Structure formats: C-alpha cells, structure tokens
Amino acid sequence: MPDRSILVVDDEDSSRVGMGQSLRLAGYRVEEAVDGPGGLALVRAHTYAVIVLDLHLGGQNGLEFLRELRLTHNTPVVMVTSDQLLGPRLEGLENGADDWLIKPFAHRELLARVAAILRRVPFVSGVVRLGDLQIDLDSQVITRQGITIVLTPRELDLLQLLLENRGRVVLRDLLEKKMSQAKAGSPVSSNVSNLVDVYMLRLRKKLGKEIISTRHGIGFIIEA
Hints:
- The chain is an alpha/beta fold.
- The chain folds into 2 domains: 5-120, Response regulator (Rossmann fold, 3-Layer(aba) Sandwich), CATH 3.40.50.2300; 127-222, Orthogonal Bundle (Arc Repressor Mutant, subunit A), CATH 1.10.10.
- It has helices at 13-25, 36-45, 62-69, 86-94, 107-118, 153-164, 172-182, 190-207, and strands spanning 5-9, 29-33, 50-54, 77-81, 99-102, 127-130, 133-136, 141-144, 147-149, 170-171, 213-215, 219-221.
- The strands form 3 sheets. The chain has a 5-stranded parallel β-sheet with strand order 2-1-3-4-5, with helices on both faces. A 4-stranded antiparallel β-sheet has the order 6-7-8-9, with no helix packed on it.
- A hairpin with a 2-residue loop joins β6 and β7.
- It is globular and about 50 Å long.
- Residues 121-125 and 183-189 have low confidence and may be disordered.
C-alpha cells in the first residue's frame, strides 16, 4: 500500500490550509510548511508520497526548492501557481515538478492529480545496464560509477517505457499519451507534445545524450 503522507508547502495561509483540509478529508496524512527552508527540513526528516508546492514562495521560491529537493529526493511534486502562461509552468517542469495546477482550482482536481500519481504502475523487476549506467528497476536507483543519478517520477515513467521497448522506436504519440495520462486524464494537446521534448532533454542531460536517440518526426529509441 503506498504511503499516504502529503507535504503542502505554501506561504498563503488560506490556500495552504484549504488544500490540507481537503487532503485530510480524503484520508491522507498531511504536514504543512509556510516556506521553502521549512519544507526542506520536513523532507529531510520524513518520507512523503507527494509534495504540493506553491511556485511563488516568499524567500526561497518554488523553483529553488525544487532544485535543492532533486539533489537528493525523487518525491513527486505537484506545483500550484496563479500564472496562466505556459512559460513558468515549463520552467517548473524543467526543474523537477511532475504536474501543476492553476489557481484557483477545485480541490477535487488536486485530489485527482495526487491520486493519479499514486496509481502509477511500478517498474518491472531487474537490473539494466546501458554503457556505464546501472538501472535498478526494483529500487528505481540509477548509478554511474557509483554516483547516484536522481530522476523525477515522471522521468522514471518515460525511461521505463523506453526500456520496455529497447531496440524499438517508441512513437511520439505513445509518449504523448503517457504524458496525458499522467495529467489525470487531460486530452493530448500541443502543450503535452512540447513536454515530451522537455522531458527527453532532461533525461539526456542526466543520463547522457547518447542513451536516447531521436527518430525525427517519429519518436525516440534506446538502442539494443
């Protein structure tokens, strides 16, 4: 049974308390932090299934929180923001967020996003080696020469899909569908297509650009 502990990091009292109450009513254990340093202190002391993070925190902002978090933790992050533009949301995803919600939003949508993250299918068993990379699919730990490489849950999802089809091209349409499903059933859009490119760029930066090859106009492949 997955851990049902959620951390909410938001400096706006009404927003933080409201999200916390909704999550508690849904059966989650919830802890709250009013700023980035307080949230990171809780992360170091406890294990959370999901972190709900406001982008615009006072002091250390949400992006700084994400960068520091991703140095040591794979915990899924749902970013909340009042920004309507795509740019800030893409910047959040590029820095390690797994999903987002635009304020104001119905708390039912927050619950749906959290539930979707917790429903994700775990990796198949086994250890895969790609060059000097060792990928332990059971523990979801990736190392290169003894150094751990931290991936976000959504990056791990896409890497698993590529590994399951190793030696075969994974069509862009399939990757877009995977991204759309991760967004709680949202329809595929041009934004989702853009996010596929964002995540492939992130994976290449972390794993090495030679690991994933592009078949332009078709999809992506991890060579056999």
